[in-house]
Structures are given as structure tokens and as C-alpha cells.
Amino acid sequence: MNPSDFPVVGAVALSRDDPYARRDQMFPKLSPDQIERLRSCGHERSAAAGELLFDQGQSDIPLFVVLSGSVEIVHPSRGADEPITVHEPGEFTGEVVLLSGRRSLVRGRARTASRLLVIEQSRLRSLVQTDAELSELFLRAFILRRMGLVAHGQGDVVLVGSRHSSGTLRLQEFLTRSTHPFTYVDVETDASVQGLLDTFHVAVDDVPVVICRGERVLKNPTNSELADCLGFNPTLDSSALRDLVVVGAGPGGLAAAVYAASEGLDVLVLESETPGGQAGSSSKIENYLGFPTGISGGALAGRALTQAEKFGAEVVVAKAAVGFLCERRPYSIDLGGGVTVRARTVIIATGAAYRKPEIAGLARFEGAGVYYGATHVEAQRCKGDEIAIVGGGNSAGQAAVYLSRVVRHVHMLIRGEGLVDSMSRYLIRRIEETPNITLRTRTRLESIEGGDHLESVVWTDDRSGETTRHDVRHVFLMTGAKPNSDWLSGCVVLDDKGFVKTGMDLSAVDLVARKWPMKRTPYLLETSLPGVFAVGDIRAANVKRVASAVGEGSICIQLVHRALSDA
């Protein structure tokens, strides 16, 4: 049983056009000069017609350059293989797994007797770091090929779920934000579901169910369990001492990883969910430098992740830091289950989460009518319905504009008099000019009601004092920010709201209380622990912009070099 045996409902295209239509960029032909440059990186071998070169689920596969003959790439399907492409002489195999080290999603075999140039992953990574021309060619092709797999659901996962299940939404978001192609089968609407359930001996009450690589059945797995099943993460060596461990893979953490790895540091990135952080859930960021037409948070995070892996950073997802062992250097970070990682320096980039208002029953409707992000996955759930968005920041504005295209009406609830102090002007204008968005100022969400799914909400207009009930089945909460700093357990100085104090924000009293051991004062982004830095939304007095977090992450690496020299 394979994912491609079922209709593709949950796959998400990252481009409006079918990526496979961009064949010239997706499957480019290397010039004779380029092939000659590659010869020093690999070795030649022959392959007989029909010979398997690599299979779905295999890791550490090499890149094959076709010198003569042809190689076919297929997606394994029930009783047959679904063709993807045939590589002719001058073309090459592979996609982003060659940089990440994850398992292959496709199968490759010689279509005819062939002569191949074989380049192992370690040599490929060195190549893309040193040869600018080939690096651009390979990376563009790899990214487009992954986009094609995602758009067509050509992966190794079947997710059986329900739109009324919070666990289903969580798993959809995890796979989508990981750019891992999957097939979604809905128990309420898909005619094939009963046969699928019978085949794997599971019941409707077990949903969400994940069928991993056609072999393992996981009932409502955690994100970590799913990541392990799909082979997302390398085995961590607790004895290894890293130059730098970055905790958090939002814009700040990914920027730090890119610059640190590109400058030769041994870098490990730990992410509790998926790369991108809060920005990764943004439908479209239009005020980020260099993207005049805007870029989705997911696309930005995906590109940054590929950059970090290109330079050799190791990235672990769905593994949260649960403690910081900071009494002595080198520092250790506790991941739970007896797993720790050691670091000479640390960058804290764990960001912040939206605050949850005090509303009775809120937890019961999370993922079943209450959401904290507005991606394609949530948009599918509320298509054609009436929704409410609580919050007046840029994320709320981006969500309102994006969702207004697919829902019947958007109610924006804010407690203040307007949006001028909290939102970019271009978003305010979009909201004002969108007829199916109503901004409700000085309005509070009082309660939410429903059975298995949210059915109605109650809000109060503070001007009139009037409280009214509305048939709104979807609420997006984007209010305030709570720092993800609990895992630090008293290791660094925090402000009164729990954000990490750095640099000049640390007072003499703070440093004395924490027994600052250095003759120098803390560097710009350094915490009250030498060699431990904080960037992005976790940092006190941060500027809540993607560009600011990226800037802090990149600047921080120069300070990391200094701290490494100090130690």
C-alpha cells in the first residue's frame, strides 16, 4: 500500500504553476565543461539496464550524473511505478535529501545500459560550497524537484484524518511546513477510506492515523514520533562538542546557522517543531527586503534551511530543549530521554508564542475551530465560512488579507482604537480596501461555544457595552507574545515578562547577581552567561520584524567568534 494509491487531497503546491512544467530549470543539462569539473569529485561506474540505483526510504544516496544511457526516476505505487522523469546524458539525479541526508522519496534505476558519474553526498556538499555556478544549478533543481513532489503528493506518507480533529491539523501542518509530500484521506469525504482502514486494521475512532512508508501505522503520533519514523533526524552524539548550538530555527536561528556554518563552525540547530518559527506560518511577507512581490513564511524558511544544510549545519526538528545545564562550560542542553548535546557557545532563538486569552473551553477547540496560524492548511478548513481574527499586529493583518480570498467574511477584533500603532500601513490599506473584512475596534472576545467543533462566538463592543453571539466556526488568535524561555530554568537574566536580557540591557546588578566571570562586559547580543547569546523574538526589547531577527542572527556570529576566542 502506497501514498500514490489514493487521491491527493492534502498536498500543497508551493507555486501556482505545476513545478514539473519548469523542466529546463528542474532537469537542466550539464555542459561538457561542467561535467569535466565534476569528474574530480566522483568516480565512474556502469549500470545494466533495469539495475536499481537507489530506492525509496534509502538514505545517504549519491548524486548520479548520466554520461551515457538513461536513468528513470519513479514514485513507487501499487503494483507499478509512477513515472516522474527520465534523465538523459548530461542530466543528474537528486533533490534536497542529498543535502539534508534524509531518506529518498523516489526510486531510481538505469533505464538502459548506462555509464554514470557517482558523487557521494559529502563531496557534493563540498562542491556546492566552493563552485558558485554548479551550486546555483544544483540547488535550483533540487528545490524545484521537491516542490514538484509536494505539489503531486509523491511522498511516503498517508495521513488519514478528519477536519474536526485537532491532531489531524497538527500533523498536516507539521508535514506541510517540513515540505514533506503526503497524501491526505478524509474519513468523512473519501470513498476509499474504509478499504484503507481495513487494510491496516485501524478504525475511524483511531484517527488521525499515519501510514509511514507503507509499513508502519502510527495512531495520533506526536510530531517527534512522526519525524523519527520518516528519518528526519540524524543520531545525536552526546559526547560530541559543537562550536555552536542554535536552539530554535526561526528566522534568527536559521540566519545564525547559515553564517556560522559558512564560516567553518561546527553547528547544530535544534527546533522543537519545524523550521520557520512564528514567521513560518505567515501566508505572505511583503515588507522583507529583496522580495517586492512578497514571499510566504514557509518558502522563506525552506530556502534558509537549504542554505544552512548546504554549508554543513546539522538540523534536528521536533526535538525541544527541556533544560539548560549552564553551571560550567562547555554548556549542555537537555533534550529529554537522557539525550544531551554539548556546546562551546549557544544561541537562544526559541522565539515567542501567541498568548492564549482566558476563555473557557479554549483548549477543547484548539485545532477544531481555534487556530494560531493562517497557512494553506487552515485556509482549506474555513473555505466559504465566516471567521474571526483576534489581534492587530502584522501577522493578524497578513492572515486577514490572505483568508479574505477564500472565506465569506472576516471579522477583525482588536481592543484598541485602531491599527496605526501596531500594523504596517500597507496592510492597513489592504484591510480598508477589502470589502469582506470588518474591523471591530474596542471589541473583546468573551466566549466560544460548540460540540466537537467550534460553532459560535460571543464578543462585546466596549463602546456600547453590547454583547452579541455570532455563527463563526473559525477563530484565529494572534494576540501578544509569550516568550519560550521556560527551558532556561534560571540560567540567564530575564525581564519581568520572561524575555532574555542581553548586552546593554543587563545592569551591573544583574551581572553581579549572576556572578559574571569576565573582565569585559557582555557583548551586544550576549546574555548574562559568557558565550550564550539571544536573538529574535526571545530577546528583550526585540523589534518584531523578520528582517530584524535575520540581522541579529547574522551579526551574532561575529560575537560568537569572539566568545570562542575568549574561552
Mean pLDDT: 93
Query: What ranges have pLDDT less than 50 throughout 5 or more consecutive residues?
Result: 1-16
Give the DSSP E fraction (strand runs of 2 or more residues): 15-25%
Q: N- to C-terminal separation?
A: 55 Å
The major pleated sheet works out as: 7 strands, mixed
Q: Under the CATH scheme, which architecture of the largest domain would be assigned? A: 3-Layer(bba) Sandwich
- Specify the structural class: alpha/beta
Q: Could you name the CATH homologous superfamily of the largest domain?
A: FAD/NAD(P)-binding domain
Radius of gyration: 25 Å
Q: What oligomerization state is this entry in?
A: single chain
Estimate nothing, just give the exact number of structural domains: 4
Secondary structure: number of strands: 28
Helix count from the secondary structure assignment: 16
Give the overall form: globular
CATH class of the largest domain: Alpha Beta
User: Helicity level, as a percent range?
Assistant: 25-40%
CATH fold category name of the largest domain: FAD/NAD(P)-binding domain
Task: Please give a structural write-up.
The protein is an alpha/beta fold and 567 residues long. It has 4 domains: 3-151, Jelly Rolls; 157-229, Glutaredoxin, CATH 3.40.30.10; 241-353 and 482-566, FAD/NAD(P)-binding domain, CATH 3.50.50; 362-477, FAD/NAD(P)-binding domain. It contains 16 helices and 28 strands. The strands form 7 sheets. Strands 12, 13, 14, 15, 16, 17 and 28 form a 7-stranded mixed beta sheet that branches.
